[in-house]
Amino acid sequence: MMDSTVLQAQIDSLISFLASHCSSGKGLGTTSSAIYDTAWLSMIQTPPNSTTSSHFLFPQCFTYLLRHQLPSGGWTSYATAVDGILNTAAALLALKRHHSLLSSSPTPPQPIQQQQQQEPELDNWPLQHRISQAESALHSMLLTWDVATTDQVGFELLVTRLLSLLQDAGVQGLSDFFPGSTTLRALHDAKLAKLPANYVYQARSTLHHSLEALVGYIDFTKVGHLKEENGSMLASPAATAAYLMGLAERGMWDEESERYLRGVLDRERFEGEGEKDDGGVPCAWPTETFEVTWVVTTLAEAGVRLGDREGEVIRGYLEEGWRRQGGLFSFFPGGLVDADDTARAIMALRHLGTKVDVESLIRTFEAKDHFRTYEGERNPSISANCNVLSCLLMMDDPTVYAQQIVKTAKFLCEQVYTDSVREKWHINELYWMMLLSQSLATLFDTIAANPSLEAAIFQLAPELQEQIPMTSLHVLTKVLGSQGLDGSWANGTAEVTAYGILTLSWLAHLPWIQQLGRMHGINFITASIESGKAFLEAHKHDWKKGQYLWIEKVTYASPVLCEAYCLAAAVIPVPDFTGSTGVDSDGQVVYRTKESLFVSEGLLKGVLKAGQLMSLTPVFRNLAPQLLRVAEMQACYALGFLQRKRKELGIFPITGGDEKYMAFIPLTWTASNALRVQATAGHGHGHSGGLSNYVLQEMMVLSMLNYQVDEYMETAVERDFLGFYGGSWGSLEAVREAIGQVFEEFDPSGRRRSIWGNADHTPTNLKEIRSTLSRYVRHILLHPAVRSAPASVQARLTKEMQTFLLAHVQHAADNIHFAALNQARQVDNSMSREHETGLPSPPISEPHDPSSPPPSKRRRLASSSSCSSSSSFSSSPLKTQEQQPKIFSPTDSRTFYSWVRTTSADHTSCPFSFTFYTCLLSHSRPYNSNKTENLFSKDARTSYVAEAMVRSLASLCRMYNDYGSIARDAGEGNLNSVNFAEFHLAATGAQHSGGVKGCSDGNQNSGEEHEEEKKKKNKKKKAKEELMWVAEYERRGLERTLGELGGLVGNGEMDKVKLFVDVTDLYGQIYVVRDIGVGVKRG
Q1: Do residues 562 and 544 make contact, with C-beta atoms less than 8 angstroms apart?
Q2: Which of 13, 519, 749, 879 is most buried (CB neighbours < 10 A)?
Q3: 282 and 264 in contact (C-beta within 8 Å)?
Q4: For 1067-1077, how does the pLDDT look when each residue is reduced to its tens digit (9 = 90+)?
Q5: Of 807, 984, 814, 968, nearest to 901 (Cα)?
C-alpha cells in the first residue's frame, strides 16, 4: 500500500510546477528532444548581416546529431519505423549540407572538432563516412517500411519531401525504389488535395506545422503574417527553421522566429527530461495547454483535489484562453484550435469550478457521424472523440446534447466493432482503451443519475444497449490478456501500466462488469488492479521517466504526463463491487448497480455450462480463467444477437428441437479470441492479438447457419426427400440438380438441361429445398466482404460452397448405402426365422423415378426391432447382429483416406468457411485502411499451403467428430469413420462363420455370450484407438503445414489463421469430450 502522504506531496509538487509556468508566461513543454527537428535547426545558416564566424546559427544542434548517430549509420527509431526514417533522412540531409558548404575548408567544421575532442574514438568517422553509412541505413529502413499502417502527423508530406531533397543533394535511388513508394505518393497527393499548397498563404492550417514539407514549393516571404505570437510556425521548431531558411535564401530574416528557436533550446527542463543546453529540441514547443489540461483532468478524475492556490492560477490561465479564442483551445496558447484540447480544457475548467459550455466545440468540430479533431484530417481520432463524449456528459443538462452523445458513442463502438481504430496521438492501444472506458463509464454513471438522458439515448439508438457491453468486454479481454505476470503492461512500462489500472477501474463502473466481478469467488478485476498497483509502487523511480508513446511527427515522451498517470493509478481506489458507481462528496469512488442491465441468470447459466465443458479440452487448458469468464459474458450478449439474427435472416425453418449448440457457437469464438489475445501478450507497445467484434459476430452467424444447414440436409433432404423416394439414383440426381440450380446465379456457365425437361415439373418439396438452400447460399456469396474480395476468391468460395452441399448429398447416399448393407445382412440372418420373429425382410433401395407418384408410405432408411416379450430367446438375433461391427463397403474404390480427405472433409464446411473468413479479414470497413491481402490471392505458394492446411484441419475435425459421435451415429444410422474396413482389419477373422446361433433357454450359452461380448467391446475399443492415432498423425501434419504458412504470411496474419484453427479444433475436441450435435431421428 503506497503512502498517501508521500503521494499527496508528489501531486502537490507536480501541480505547483505546472502552476508556476502558467503564471510565468515563459512557456512550458516537457516533451523529449527529437533528432528530426534538431536536424532542421542544424541546417540554418547565419543571417546575411551576422558578425559570427560560424557558418551555422546553431552549431550545438549539429553536435547533437553527431553525438546520436548510431553505429549502423542511422538515427534511432523511438517507437515506430517512420521515426527512424524521418530522423535519419533529416540528419542525413543536414550532413550533406554541412559537407557541401564546408568541404572546401582546410579544417573540419567547428562542431566536428568539438566532437572529436570530447570523443576521440570517433576520429575514424569523417563526415563523408558518416554520410555513406547514413545512406545505407536509410535504404534499409525504407525497404522494410509498411507505409499503409503508418499514421503520424504529416508523414506523407514530410518523408516525400525529404527524399526529394536528398535526391537533389546527390543521394540516389530513394524516391521510387522501395515497396511503399506508390502508396506514399498517393497519400501525399490526397493530403495536398485537401489542403492545396497555395492555401498556406491565406490562413493558418495544420499544414503550417509541417511547413518544411513545402521547401522549394512555396515563397516563405509570404507566410510570415501567419506565424504565432511567439514567432513560431504553429509551435514547430522544424517548420520555423524551414521558414527562416526560406527567408535567408531571399536575403531576409525574422528575429522573432530566431528568438523562438533560441527559447526552445534554452527551455526549462522537467526532472528526468535530460540536460539543459544539450542542443536537442522537441517536435513541438510550447505544449503547456496540452500538458496542463491532461494532468488536471487525469488527477481530478482519479479523485484528487487540487490545492486552492495552484488551482486558482491554473483556472485563471485556462479562463484567459477560453476568452481569447472564443471557447476553443489549442495545445498551446493562441494556436490552431482542435477538438481534443478543447474538450480537455473544458473538462479541466469544470473540475476547477468554472462552468463553461460546449457550444463552440460542437459548432466547430461536429461532423456527420463523429467529431473532427481539426480541419483537413485524414483519419478521425478515437481518443479525441472519447474526450468529446466525456466533455458532453459533464454538462449540467446533458440531455440537451443527446444527439451528439449518441453520435459519438455510436462512432466509438463502430470503430472498435470493425477494428478501425488507428489512434493518431498514441502508439499503445491501452491509451485509447483507457479513454474509451472512462467515457463509457461516465455515460452510464450519468444515465443512472438522469433517467431522462437514458430514455433519450436509447430511444435514439437502442442498439447501444448491446454495442456498449460488447465494446467494453472486448476492451476488458484485451486489458486482462495483455497484463504481465509481474502485474505490468507493455513489458514493464510504468506509464502504460498506469493506463491498464485506470482502464480496469473505469470498466468496473459498468453494470455487466460489476456482475462479472461478483459472480465468481475471486474477483479477478480487483486482483489485476492490485497487481498493477504493486508493480507501480516497486518502480516509483520510473514515474518521471516518460516513454516514447505519444505521436507527433515522430513519437515523443512526456515525463509530466507519465508522472500524472502513475499518480492517478496509484491513488484511484480499488473497486470492491459492493455499492454504486460515481465519486462521492469525499472524492471516493463508489459503485451502483442497475439490475436491468445485467445478463439474465438463465442465459448466463447455459453459457457457463458450455464454458465448463470447453475448459476440459486441450485447446483451453492454458487459457487464463479470468479471460474465459469475460469470454462467457461476451458470449451471452452475442447469443442474444444470434437469436435475433436467426429470426431476421429466416433462412432455415426453426424446428424447435434441441439446440444446445447455440450456447456453444458464440463462446467458441469469444474464448478462442481470448486465447489469441493471451498468446500475443507481452509483445510490448502497440496492439494485442485477436479479432474485431465484426469478424467474430460474422463468423458466429456463419457457424450458426452451418449447424442449421447440417440439420436441414439431414432432415429435409436426406430423411424426408431421399427417404421418401427410397434413396434412389434418380432422387439423388434430383437433389444434385437442385443444388446446381442454386449456383447458376453465380456461375451461369454451369447451367445444364434439367432432368425434368423444359417444363418445370420439380416436386414441391424439392422446390422448397432449392429455395431454402438458395437463401443460405445468397446470404454468404452476396456478403459485402465476399463481394469486395478478388474475383478469383469469390469463384473459389462459390465452388467450395457447392462442393460442401454436394458432399452432404454424397454423405446421404453413403448413409443410405450403409443402411442398405446392414438391412441386407439382417435379411440374410433373419430369413430362416421370419415366421418366428414376425420380421419381414425389408427391400433394399429401389430405383424409383422421383417424378413418379410417391409410395403411400415413406420407407425407413434403417429399421430396428426387438424380440417380442413372449419369445423364449434370451436376446434377439437382430440385437446380437447390431452389436457386431458394421463395416462400410463403398460402391466405388474409396478408401478411408480418400473419403476423409474429400467427401468427409467437404461435409464439415471447414474449407469454404475458411475462405469466407479470409474475405472478412481482408474486408475494408469505413475509416479502416488496414485492408490486408487475401491469403488466396497472395501468390501460388501461399494459396497452396493455405488450402493444404484447411484440408488437413477439416480431416482432423471430422475424425475428432466421429470419435465422439460413434454411439450417436450408430443409433441414427449415420456412416462413421470406424465403419470403414481399415479399422477392422485385425478383426475380420473373428467373425461368426455360421451366422447367428439358434435360440436357447436359460443360461446354456451364457459363458460363450460373455466371451463374445468381451471380444466385441475389444474390437470397438481397438477401432476407436486406431481412429485417435490417425487423428493425431493428421495433427502432426497440420502443425507442420501451419509452420510453413507462418513463414509465408508473417506473425500478424498467422495469428488470425491460428484463431480459426483453434475454433475448428475446439469443435472436434468438444465432440471427443461430449457429443453436442443435433440428434436427428430417422424412421
Answers
A1: yes
A2: 519
A3: yes
A4: 888 877 765 55
A5: 807
